[in-house]
Amino acid sequence: MSGRFPEVDWFCDRCHEHLNNQSGFDDSKYTWKCTDCGHKNSISKDNIYESHEKFLGSE
Q1: Which residues are within 8 A (CB) of 59 and not within 5 positions of it... i.e. 6 or more apart?
Q2: Burial of 34 by CB count in 10 Å (0-12 exposed, 13-18 middle, 19+ buried)?
Q3: What is the pTM of this model?
């Protein structure tokens, strides 16, 4: 994996699979097509949240 966001765990917006573990994942590619469901995910700093609760908007 590339080092644009070395401490970030990425998850698919549709199926919630862990993208970092998918073969070939590279966070320098601005988008990543989930190998489980095929959803095209945006990989950018705008999509980094401090917690799952903040992602859901409940905090």
Answers
A1: 51, 53
A2: buried
A3: 0.83
The C-alpha atoms of residue 2 and residue 4 are separated, in whole angstroms, by 6
- The answer to whether 53 and 43 have CB atoms below 8 angstroms apart is no
Q: What is the DSSP string of 4-56?
A: SSTTPPPB-TTT--BGGGSTT--TTSSEEE-TTT--EEE-SGGG--SSHHHHH
6-53 residue pLDDT tens: 889 999 999 999 999 999 999 999 999 999 999 999 999 999 988 878
Letter string b/e over residues 41-59, b meaning 16 or more CB atoms within 10 A of that residue's CB: bebeeeeeeeeeeeeeeee
